[in-house]
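Protocol step 6 of 9: fold each sequence in the batch and record its structure tokens directly after the sequence line. For illustration, a two-sequence batch is reproduced in full.

Sequence one:
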Amino acid sequence: MPRTTLNSEAGTYEGFDIYASYVVNATGMHIGTLKVVRKRDKRVLYPFDGCETIGPFESSEDARRAAEELGRRIVTADIANPER
């Protein structure tokens, strides 16, 4: 799974790891996959129970791009208002 590292200090993007990729479902559509981890406490911010499906998309590029964008939004929100 491709990994976007945003490095080492909570409160900045470097304090998070974003793992964005995709899978192909039974109908041939591409679904984005995402894992966002806050490094400071190793807390997984995404996925969580009841989280949205990222897609479907016709291309793997679109699915991965959507997952990365969602990851950035989650990090931005956590920086603004950290989940405890």
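Sequence two, same batch, same settings:
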Amino acid sequence: MERISLFGAALAAMCLLPVPASADAANGERLARQWCANCHVIDGSGPSARLPQGPPSFRVAAGHLNPGELRAFLSHPHGAMPDLALSRSEIDDLIAYIEGLH
């Protein structure tokens, strides 16, 4: 039980962290096109919104999730998301790219 509490506390702490200034949005876009475009709409191109995965568009994510929520989700994918095992810097880069779409 204590282990679950520590995990929850760690996730909550991640939600408070801003995107580092060193994050590379261009690399985030490259990663999005490499790993995410098969299931999500990236800049108006990609699969149609009929896919059950969500959000169907990165613009939707940019408008509804803050950087901390994105970080928590990308650190521990769930649902239909594959476990991409992204590094912290790759997650920050993806978040910087998504935030740039807002």
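Proceed to step 7 once all outputs are recorded. Observation for sequence two: DSSP finds five helices and no strands in the chain.
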